[in-house]
Every structure is written in structure tokens, then in C-alpha cells.
Amino acid sequence: MASTKVGATGDRKDLQFGTKAVSLRNPPPDQPPLVAPIYASSVFCPRDFEDAAKTQIGEGFLYSRWENPTTNLAADAIAELEGAAGGALLFASGMCAISTAFMTFLKKGDHVVAPDMCYSACLSFFNEMCPRIGVDVTLVNQCDIDTYRKAIRPNTVLLYGETYTNPSLEVVDLEALGKLSDEGGRHIRTMVDNTFASPFCVQPIRFGIDVSLHSCTKYLGGHSDLTAGCACFRLPSDKQEMLQIRKMFGGITSPQEAFLLHRSVKTLHVRMPQHCSNAMAVARFLESHDKVVQVFYPGLPSHPQHLVAKSNAVREDAYTGMLAFVLKGGFEAAKTFVLAVKVITFAVSLGGVESLVEHPASMTHDPAAVSLIAGSQGPSPVADGLIRFSAGMEDIKDLIDDLTQALCTV
After folding, report:
1. Could you count the other beta carbons within 10 Å of the beta carbon of residue 209?
2. What is the mean pLDDT of residues 394-407?
3. pLDDT in tens, 77-122
4. What average pLDDT does the segment 38-54 reach?
């Protein structure tokens, strides 16, 4: 075992006990490991002054709040799958990625156009944070691109959307959104949350979208054992701008989480077909059940934006592992149902190997966020009987059997 630290005489034998204890380090092995290691170090040692200076312009590593080899490796892997020529950055969570993106690209006097039905934490940001920083937000129906067009003002700087809205799986036309951003003689930045689809199913940057966001906690992580977020970029300049804000806010993913994420990304192409096929089978089953009022799954021909979802998709019959459905009987029916499942788990989140059900109106789409929509459009669009379902990787027969017995209790 070699070390980079020796005593004043050039021999480690001359070092005192405490110095020996803290100074022994392994050099990089001659034979590279098959699996990239976890670089848990918070600091990296420059070879000389010139080497240290280069880190200030993004070359090399100095401090893990800025960048880390393990974190960068996972980000690069996701960027490649997304087709993000501008690269990618990792964050401590999906909302950390989204909030950092907003704080990077928005300033006082700006205007944002966003979906009226999207992730509740995003709605909370629009409702609570945007007024504090002097940013106006207009909420529109993302299924109709013309509503975006009509909402654009001279000070509009961001068009925001979700590949599939949470929780009702409404679909945005990515090609139309990408083209709209360049219609008025100036470019308006576009940003899409692609969490529900994953890069296996949809790649927004292919359509000219500037920033594709993910909660890596979901499909990219895939095992319900990590919390992380990611932003993928069409342009390197957007990545560099957001990197500077990440350095200030300090919201980088830890090396340990990044290691787990990189491990999981390697099997995304194996997991997603199973998620998607199980979701399609469950959606078809529920659509024919007499206790279900409506099913929201973009792969079904009955979905209002099915053709748009099909044009967004990278591959045929791979939309998402997420669906939602409304039960007859409202809240009481929903409460009875989620407590009756046995193979399926009653819990929040999504995208893991286990199938999950949750009740958005009481668990994820909090009243403060929903009131933002209700205030502009009347009654809350999150129905009391709405159930969100994340299809896992169990055998489809067991899932259908569990759904059947749970629905019998309603």
C-alpha cells in the first residue's frame, strides 16, 4: 500500500502516530474497476496552482458542493439517455431541481405560463414563492397549446409543462410547445417535467424543449431507496448558468445517492417495459369495471390526448407506468379501496418495482395548492374518488386479482 504523505526525511517511518493515522491514502489502481467507485471525499487535491485555477472554470474537481466525480457520472448517463447535448446536473431531489431551475431563469418582472393541473409542490412554488420574487404566473390547460399562445406577454420568459400531469395524466404536445417558443421573433425558454415518462418513453429535448426535469427518486432510481433530481439541457450555456446557482444553493446530490442512481439507470431499459405493460393491462381492466367512473392512461385509445401521447413517445406502446382512475362513491369508496389492497401497497411516490396506490386529494395535492386552481376555475379538479396508481413489476395476474378483491369491498 502506497501513500502520498511522507515525513520530512522522505520516509513514513519518521511520522508520528497521529499523522500516520490520518495521512494514509491509496493511489488509483492500475486496473480500473468495473463499477465506478463512490467518491465520498468532500475535497479534491490540486496538483499545483494552475490545476487549482482550472477548477474555477469548470475543469476538474475541488469541492463536492460544486461538483463530484460520482455525481457527474450519474448525470452524464442520464443526459445521454435523454439526448441532452447540453449535459445534465443532479440535485438533492426533484423539487430541488425544479426550484433551482425557476430561481436560475426567473427574475423580478418576469412572467411564466404553466399548467393549471400539475404537481402540487410546483403549484405551491407558483402560489407562494413567485409573488415573493416578483414573478407573475398564468395557469392554462396544457392540453391546448393555444391557451399557452394566448397567455404569452412581452415579459414571458418561461413556458412550463409536464409530459403527463400529476395526477390526472393530461398530455402536452411537445412538438407544438417547442415550436411555440420561437414563434414571436424571440426565443422563450421551455421546461418540461418528464418524471412520469422517463427518458425510455419520452425525450422532450428531441422536440426542441430547453430543459427536461426529473425526480430521479422515481423511475430513474426505480427502487424506492434514493432521493434525487435531475435537469437535462439542450444548450450547454443553460447548464452552466444553473450550475452556478446550484453551487450557491448547495442542492447537489450526495455521492452515495448518485452511486445508487447510476446503478439504477443501467437497468431502466429492462424495468420500463414491465412498468408500461402492467399499467396498460391494469388500465384496460379498470376501464371495463362497473365501479370505475373513468380511467386516465395515455396509452388507451379512449384517452383524450392519446394521439398526442403517441406522437411524443419514443417507442410504440411505451407511455408510462402511471395511471389514475375515479371510483364511484367518491371519498368513502377511495378510502375503502386503498386500505383493502394486499399485493399493492398504499403509499405515496411512484416509479419503484412495487405497485403503489395513493389518494391525491388527501395525500399529495394539498389544499393550499389545489386552492390555487380552484380559485381560478371553480371546484377543485382533484376528484375525491381519484386514485393514482403506480404500476410496479409484479406478475400482472396478482395485480389484477388484488384490484378485483379490493374493488369488491367498495
Report:
1. 27
2. 98
3. 999 999 999 999 999 999 999 999 999 999 999 999 999 988 989 9
4. 89
**What is the phi-psi region of residue 378: left when phi exceeds 0, alpha when psi lies from -120 to 50, beta otherwise?**
left
5 classed as catalytic: no
Q: Is 334 helix (H, G, I), strand (E, B) or coil?
A: helix
Q: What pTM, to 2 d.p., does this model score? A: 0.92
- Beta-carbon contacts of residue 218 (< 8 Å; ≥ 6 apart): 94, 195, 196, 198, 349, 350, 351, 352
In this structure, are residues 37 and 74 in contact, taking their beta carbons and an 8 Å threshold? no
pLDDT band at 32 (very low <50, low <70, confident <90, very high): confident
Q: Among the options 39, 110, 116, 119, which is catalytic? A: 119
The verdict on whether 119 is a catalytic residue reads yes
Sorted by sequence, the CB contacts under 8 Å of residue 107 that are 6+ apart come out as 133, 134, 135
- Scanning the structure block, which residue is given the C-alpha cell 383524450? 304
Give pLDDT, residue 21.
80
Examine the pLDDT at 304 and tell me if it is beyond 50. Answer: yes
The catalytically annotated residue of 218, 234, 239, 246 is 218
CB neighbours (10 Å) of residue 128?
12
Using CA atoms, how far apart are residues 392 and 389, in angstroms rounded to an integer?
9
Are β-strands 211-215 and 189-193 bridged in parallel, bridged antiparallel, or unpaired? parallel
Q: Average pLDDT, stretch 216-238?
A: 98
DSSP string, 184-198: TSSPPEEEEE-TTTH
Dist. CA 403–CA 344, nearest whole Å: 8
Question: Do 319 and 276 touch, CB atoms closer than 8 A?
Answer: yes
* Residue listed under C-alpha cell 430521479: 216
Given the residues 173, 193, 210, 402, the one annotated as active site:
193
The DSSP-derived string for 131-142 is HHHT-EEEEE-T
Q: Is 164 a catalytic residue?
A: no
The length of the chain is 410
Nearest 10 degrees: CA dihedral of 277, 280, 281, 287? 180
Q: pLDDT band for position 8 (50/70/90)? A: low
> Span 187-192, mean pLDDT?
98
Q: Give the DSSP letter of residue 235.
A: S
